[in-house]
Amino acid sequence: MSKTSTKGICQFCQGEFSKAAMSRHLEACTQRTAAAVPGNRKTTKTTRLVHLLVEGRDLPQYWMHLELPAEATLHTLDDFLRRSWLECCGHLSKFEIAGISYASYPDPEFGDKSMRVQVGTIVGPGQQFFHEYDFGTTTELRLKVVAEREGEARGKSIQVLARNEAPLITCEVCGKPATEVCAQCIYEGAGWLCEVCAEEHECGEEMLLPVVNSPRVGMCGYTGPA
Questions:
Q1: pLDDT at 218
Q2: Left (φ > 0), alpha (ψ -120 to 50) or beta: where does 80 sit?
Q3: Percent helix, strand and coil across the chain, each to the nearest 5
Q4: 10 Å Cβ neighbour count for 160?
Q5: Looking at residue 60, which CATH number applies to its domain?
Q6: Within 100-192, where are the H helices?
């Protein structure tokens, strides 16, 4: 599959923008600004919020803009990424930040640290870091801190600001939209099939996975968000 750019939808105004334009749009989106105004400034608690751009490291056409409280932990972020994009078989995962590994099950022998550390204490605006899920059939993500702001506290929940629309992938046999992908052939850049052509694929039905809007598409046993 080619690394074609994709457009995405702003969750506030429902406008469609390219990945390159989305960061600028979110900064200026009037609907987002209106939604961020506290209803009662005397009683509403505010906190520092971190805006992240997350994308597939090798498949950057899959991306999300997220916002989370600075006091949210890497564990919370890891859980969100698993539920949204990654989870298939309960694999291990880790973040790599400034040369330090923060692992789901840290091993001190390898210098790992716990993910139970607040995001806002270890990353800042402009900083780039990485996430890996499954150390066998690995899906790698690149994360960048786009901005920070003071905003209304909503617990430690993560908000999706925007995300990519599913890339159009065509069947390699007939050219129709692909609905299945072969977990074996994908490593050779092939195996994208429509429902009809998938029935005759030589690797067999047991090797087929659904085409989903995620950088983990076609890998291990991934069939979509939890």
A1: 95
A2: alpha
A3: 20, 35, 45
A4: 12
A5: 3.10.290.30
A6: none
Number of domains in the chain: 2
Residue 94 lies in a domain: yes
In a domain, 40, yes or no: yes
pLDDT reported for residue 38 = 64
- Regions of the chain short of the pLDDT cut 50: none
Host domain of residue 198: 180-210
Residues 23 and 56 reside in one and the same domain: yes
159: left (phi over 0), alpha (psi -120 to 50) or beta: beta
As a residue count, the chain comes to 226
* CB burial readout 139-154, b (16+ within 10 A) else e: bebbbbbbebeebebe
The pLDDT value given to residue 108: 86
DSSP 83-121: IIII-SS---EEEEETTEEEESS--GGGT-EES-SBGGG
Q: Which two tokens stand for residue 73?
A: 């932990």
Q: Quote the pTM value.
A: 0.92
Same domain membership, residue 187 and residue 156: no
Is 79 in the same domain as 142? yes
E-assigned strands of the chain?
7-10, 16-18, 46-56, 63-69, 93-97, 100-103, 113-114, 128-133, 139-152, 159-164, 180-182, 192-193, 208-210
Let me know whether 184 and 158 are in one domain: no
Does residue 76 form part of some domain? yes
Distance of CA 159 to the CA centre of its chain: 12
Contact 157, 143 (CB under 8 A): no
C-alpha count within 13 angstroms, C-beta hemisphere, residue 7: 7
